Amino acid sequence: GDSVITVQLTEEDKVEDDVVFYLVFTGSTVQHCTSTRKINPGSLETISPGHDCCETVKVALCASREGHPVLVVAEESFQFVQDEAYDAAQFLATCAGNQQALNFTRFLDRSRPPAADVDFLDEKVALAFRHLKLPAEWNVLGADQALSENIPRETLMHFAVRLGLLRLTWFLLQQPGGRGALSIHNNEGATPVSLALERGYQKLHQLLTEEGAREPDSWSTLSHTVHSGDYSVKHHRGLDVYLLTAEA
């Protein structure tokens, strides 16, 4: 999701300014409709929707004009693939309360990847998390939320803060159990807040401690949900396009 898609129109498809183009993606269970913006008379731009599974879907380019029926201009197939970021997000979501798995992730910290790699990892994994279909009962602290806050344990929040993953930390804070995780100590007695301070992650510490702290600037390049329910509508501010997703 949230990748830029460019559509090249053939000579016969280049039409008047009052024609509006849409892309319709039809998957096995959900359908997406995205508006487009014209770059020039022969090119359109839009954003790929975040899909609910990895599959090949049908995509149709539709043209709409006031007072006329909607026309299907062209059809093509489009493949949603499972990449490493998707695998990582799925692994972390599944292991939310699994102490063995969360302790295993700590080896990443010892290798200390370069800042540019951390930034890339943060963006990709956080984006994949946003598009995962998390169960309604999913919680940052795992399935056993009844555990006392006094029991030392690793949490997903410790993992995100230890690596300095600003966007993933922000995402987790918005989820059930996200705020509760901030006061949990691990076996070394560290909370996510104390870890951020100890490592000198000022922006991260600010995010965790300031009331009403704003989301990271980088999210402004992504789609924002403006309606959710039986269907969802997202707005991508950068391209000013909308994505409508509903059950097929």
From TrEMBL:
The gene is Akap13_1. GO terms for biological process: adrenergic receptor signaling pathway; positive regulation of canonical NF-kappaB signal transduction; regulation of Rho protein signal transduction. Signal peptide: none annotated. SUPFAM superfamilies: Ankyrin repeat (SSF48403). GO terms for cellular component: actin cytoskeleton; membrane. InterPro entries: Ankyrin_rpt-contain_sf (IPR036770), Rho_GEF (IPR051632). GO terms for molecular function: MAP-kinase scaffold activity. This is AKP13 protein.
